[in-house]
Design a protein that fits this description.
alpha+beta; Alpha-Beta Plaits; 4-stranded antiparallel beta sheet; 48% helix; 16% strand
C-alpha cells in the first residue's frame, strides 16, 4: 500500500510541476496580440489645410512683426509676407480657423484688407490660346495628320 501511495504522490508532484511550467506559457500566449489585433502606437490624424492670399491696404508693422503676429493666430501653420505686393499668404487649419475669422483678426491687428479669390485668378490665366502648351498641342496634332514623305507601305 505504501508503494501505491508513493506512486500516486509522485504522479501528483509531476502533474503539479508540469502544470506550473505550462500555465505561464499559456498566459503569455493569450496576452500576445495577433497581427489583426495589433494597434498602431500613434493615430494618424488627417488635417485639411487652406492656403489663402490676403491683400492688405494698410500696414503699420515691419515684415518680421507682421509674420510673427499672424503666426500667433489660431490654426495658422505657415505665413509668407510680401511687402512689395502688399499681400500675405497664410496656410491654416480649416478646423481651427476660417477666412472670415482671419480677416477679423487681421483687422484687429491693424492690417485691413481682403482675401484674394483664388478661383478668379485661375480663370484669368486659362483662356484658350493664351497658353503656349495649348498651341503646341494643336500644332502637333496637325503634323500627325499631314503625313511625312518618309511613309513607306
Amino acid at each position: 500500500m505504501k508503494k501505491n501511495k508513493k506512486k500516486v504522490d509522485n504522479i501528483f508532484e509531476i502533474l503539479l510541476l508540469s502544470l506550473c511550467l505550462i500555465m505561464p506559457m499559456i498566459g503569455y500566449a493569450q496576452s500576445k496580440p495577433t497581427d489583426g489585433d495589433r494597434k498602431p502606437n500613434h493615430q494618424q490624424v488627417q488635417v485639411d489645410y487652406l492656403t489663402e492670399t490676403y491683400q492688405f491696404t494698410d500696414n503699420r508693422f515691419t515684415e518680421y512683426d507682421l509674420r510673427r503676429h499672424i503666426e500667433e493666430l489660431a490654426g495658422v501653420v505657415a505665413v509668407q509676407v510680401n511687402m512689395g505686393k502688399s499681400n500675405v499668404v497664410v496656410k491654416f487649419d480649416k478646423s481651427k480657423n476660417s477666412k472670415s475669422k482671419l480677416k477679423k483678426s487681421l483687422k484687429k491687428l491693424g492690417v485691413p484688407g481682403n482675401f484674394v479669390d483664388s478661383n478668379k485668378k485661375e480663370n484669368k490665366n486659362t483662356k484658350k490660346g493664351d497658353n503656349k502648351n495649348d498651341q503646341s498641342k494643336e500644332n502637333g496634332s496637325n503634323r500627325e495628320n499631314q503625313g511625312h514623305g518618309n511613309d513607306r507601305r
